[in-house]
Structure formats: structure tokens, C-alpha cells
Design a protein that fits this description.
Length: 474
């Protein structure tokens, strides 16, 4: 043990020593998840990251003589590289709030609910969750709201709980993975230094085939099942119609946003314009909701201004008469993204000291011994993403660690950065919900009332996505 911790000034950290901060991080995250559950992102995970970073600092300074100035510069550089991602995340919070209260998302949901029928229920559930998640950028919100309603409908139609939960989760994570509003999508692209739109477009090559196969499976199961009863669907749609003014004119907002994306405008510009359009739609189509958003009972210019601004940055809630719908239409605006921003900053601190100390490079060296071609690099990336989900029990940390670990390796091998960002999303993002002790797996099992091991075999998309990433290298 004394020899293990002998000072080695100027030497590259060994793999054994480099694994110590990761081991500490895994242990602390395990304890945090056990103690706080789905609330671990509200501070526990951040403290775990900073604690592991401090262990890395002590080892690198005490054993290898790395200067604090070098570590600090590395931290600053990592935080600087995440600055644009933080701005995008704040805009995502703003657009999520305005699109919801303006009626854009409720309109899309109402039109989507009309396609439900027992003979294609599982496939329709998957598509609806995919659509809602794509528009909201949140698999958690989708599963906790529309997913819960679909679980009730599925039970009424006598579908297996595992199949229903699998269809819901497959669709929700498909949308989360491709949505420009998703924090995981932004995080993966920024960590790997790939433009957001380029990252999303490149993921289509593996994501669309995986989704098509999953839909065919869900459709086949649905066609062999016959039942009836969609009263909950009607109740859900009625609550939305009662609360919002549902009109096709609201589809102008997502269509205009799609055109901006097609014109390849910067993500920050596109999201800002989309927020402004939704704010205008709120004033035009939902004026009766503005006083309640503003927390005032009387009208007036300042009340209207306060209501629109609150939709952008603050928490909002509306009474629809249906608890599940109340949860769906509740938003948190920019303020709801602060825990994710906080987590990113702490993760950048951990990544910074791991990079500045040379420990991350030492760990990367493990893969250099086995990786020779693109297929091997992607396979190793997918394996790392899944492993970090198992070890760290957190989706965000898995994305960051996998991206940081392989970025230099891909550069050395002459591989595209977007290949890395896609492999990270195909593994770290979609498999987190399959791990019972991961924050995602724990949350979705609790929300849906279905044990992780019960729905695990039926999350077709979540299995196919990492496999497709390995098979498809273009």
C-alpha cells in the first residue's frame, strides 16, 4: 500500500490510481441514489461529483506533483466548452413552458390521442409518446403524464403491463433522443463538440431503423390482441379541450420551428424564435390563461406581461379537473433547468481535473490496446456508455464520462466527432432506463407502477438502438 502511494513526480498516472476517483464516484452515487431516489439530481449527485473531483486532485497533486494551476485551467476550459450548452438548456426550459401553456403541445397531444384503437394500441402508444417527447424534449415528463394515462388504458384493454410500459418507454426515449429540446441531446452534442443539428441529423441513421422495427413488433402484438375501452382517452382529451383553445392554427409554431431547423439556423437562434412565436400564440389563443399564469385576478398590460414572462422562466400550473393532465401541463420554465445546469458544472469540474491530471488519458489507454477500426471504436463506446450507466447510476454522468473518455481516441483514429456523439446517445441515453438502480430506471418503475425487470424485456427500441449503432457505421 505504501508503495502504491509513493510519490511519482512528473509521471503519467497509472490506470490503478486513475480508477480510484471513478470508484469513489460510483460508491457515492450509489449511496445518493439509495438516499434520494429520483431527487438525486437536486444536489446529491453534484456533491458526489465534487467529492470525487477532490479525490482526483489530492491523488494527482500528492502523488504525481500536478500543479493546482494546471488543474484549474483544465476546469475552466471544460466549463467554457459547456457555455453554449447551458444557454441552450435555459432556452429549452423557456420553450417547454411557452409551448405548453400556449396550447401548442396540448393541440398536438389531442390530435395524437385520436389514433388510439385496441388493434394498434401498443404501436399507437409508442408513437404518441415519441411525438410528445419529441415536442417537449423530456422522456420523464412524457412517461409521468401521457405514459401514466396510457398505462391505465392498456390495463383496461387487458394488455400485459410489461408490453404497455415497454411501448411507452420506447417511444418516450426515441423522442427524447432526437428532440432539440432534450437536455441529454444537447449534453451529448456539446460534450463531443458536435453542432446540435448535425448531431440530431446523424442519429437518424440508427434511430429511425430501430424505431421502425420496434413499431412493427408492437403492431404485431397489438393485432393479436382484442379488447375495448378508451374512456380514459376521451376524458384526457376533454380535459385538454376544456382548458385550452385547441386549433390547427397553433401548428404554425412547430411548423415554423421546423423551417428554421431546415434552414440550419443556429440552435440558440431557432429556440429563441420558437419561444417568441409561442409567446405570441399564448396571447392570441389562450388570453384567459394569462391572469392565472401571472398569479393575478385582474387584467391589464402588466398582468399580461407578467404572465408571458412567467411562462418563460417560472413554474406554472393549471387546473384541468384531471390530475394526470394537471401534471402534464405543469411547467418549470428556465428555472426547471437549473439542477441540470448545476450538474453539468459539477461534472465539468470532475472532467476537468480528470483530464488535467492525465487520469482520463490513462483510462483511454486501456481502449487503445483493443480498438483498431471504426467498428471497434463504436463498440467500445457503446460498451462504455452502458457500463457507466451500471456503475454511476446516472444518465447525465454516463453521457459526459463516455464522451470525454473517447473524444481524444476518435480524434487520433481520424473518426468523425458526430460518430462519437451518436454512439454516446445510442448507449448512455437509451439504456439508463433499463438499469433498476439507475435514476432513470428507478423513476420510471415508480411512475408507471411496473418493476424495471418486468418492463425490461419489452423496451424494444432501447435494445435495438445500441446494437444498431455498432452495426451501422455510416
Amino acid at each position: 500500500m505504501t508503495k502504491f502511494f509513493t510519490k511519482r513526480w512528473g509521471q503519467t498516472p497509472s490506470v490503478a490510481v486513475s480508477l480510484i476517483p471513478l470508484g469513489v464516484l460510483a460508491l457515492l452515487l450509489f449511496l445518493v441514489i439509495r438516499a434520494f431516489g429520483s431527487d438525486s439530481i437536486m444536489g446529491g449527485s453534484q456533491i458526489a461529483l465534487l467529492s470525487a473531483a477532490s479525490i482526483c486532485v489530492m491523488l494527482s497533486v500528492g502523488i504525481y506533483g500536478v500543479s493546482w494551476a494546471r488543474l484549474e485551467d483544465s476546469i475552466v476550459e471544460h466549463i467554457r466548452s459547456s457555455a453554449s450548452a447551458i444557454i441552450i438548456l435555459l432556452l429549452i426550459g423557456s420553450i417547454a413552458g411557452t409551448w405548453m401553456v400556449s396550447g401548442v403541445v396540448p393541440t398536438l397531444i389531442c390530435y395524437g390521442l385520436e389514433v388510439l384503437h385496441p388493434s394498434w394500441f401498443l404501436a399507437a402508444s409508442c408513437l404518441i409518446c415519441a411525438f410528445v417527447s419529441l415536442m417537449t424534449g423530456s422522456s420523464w415528463t412524457t412517461i409521468a403524464t401521457i405514459g401514466v394515462a396510457l398505462m391505465g388504458i392498456g390495463r383496461a384493454m387487458e394488455f400485459s403491463e410489461g408490453w404497455v410500459a415497454g411501448a411507452i418507454i420506447s417511444g418516450a426515449y426515441f423522442g427524447d433522443k432526437l428532440s432539440l429540446l432534450s437536455d441529454t441531446t444537447v449534453l451529448a452534442s456539446s460534450t463531443c463538440e458536435v453542432p446540435l443539428f448535425s448531431h440530431v441529423r446523424y442519429m437518424l441513421y440508427t434511430t429511425i431503423p430501430s424505431m421502425v422495427i420496434a413499431l412493427l413488433v408492437f403492431l404485431g402484438v397489438s393485432l393479436t390482441h382484442a379488447s375495448s375501452g378508451a374512456g380514459d382517452v376521451a376524458l384526457y382529451a376533454e380535459a385538454l379541450h376544456r382548458t385550452f383553445r385547441i386549433t390547427p392554427w397553433l401548428l404554425v409554431v412547430p411548423v415554423a420551428t421546423g423551417l428554421l431547423i431546415w434552414r440550419k439556423l443556429p440552435a440558440i437562434v431557432t429556440l429563441f424564435v420558437a419561444t417568441l412565436l409561442a409567446a405570441v400564440a399564448l396571447v392570441i389563443f389562450q388570453p384567459e390563461l394569462i391572469p392565472s399564469l401571472a398569479g393575478a385576478g385582474e387584467g391589464g398590460p402588466m398582468t399580461g406581461f407578467r404572465g408571458v414572462m412567467t411562462a418563460c422562466f417560472g413554474s406554472t400550473s393549471l387546473e384541468t379537473g384531471v390530475e394526470a393532465v394537471d401534471e402534464l401541463v405543469a411547467t418549470r420554465g428556465m428555472s426547471g433547468m437549473m439542477n441540470t445546469v448545476w450538474l453539468i458544472l459539477c461534472a465539468m469540474c470532475f472532467g476537468g481535473v480528470m483530464t488535467g491530471s492525465g487520469m482520463l488519458q490513462a483510462l483511454t489507454g486501456l481502449f487503445l490496446r483493443f480498438v483498431r477500426r471504426a467498428a471497434g471504436s463504436v463498440a467500445a463506446t457503446v460498451f462504455a456508455g452502458v457500463s457507466f450507466n451500471l456503475i454511476t447510476a446516472d444518465q447525465y454522468i454516463s453521457i459526459i464520462l463516455t464522451g470525454r473518455l473517447f473524444k481524444g481516441l476518435y480524434r487520433e483514429r481520424g473518426l468523425e466527432a458526430r460518430l462519437l456523439s451518436r454512439a454516446v446517445e445510442d448507449s448512455a441515453t437509451v439504456t439508463s432506463v433499463l438499469v433498476p438502480w439507475n435514476s432513470c430506471g428507478m423513476t420510471q418503475a415508480t411512475v408507471l407502477g411496473v418493476a424495471t425487470f418486468t418492463y425490461l424485456p419489452y423496451c424494444i427500441f432501447n435494445y435495438l438502438s445500441p446494437l444498431m449503432s455498432i452495426l451501422w457505421q455510416q
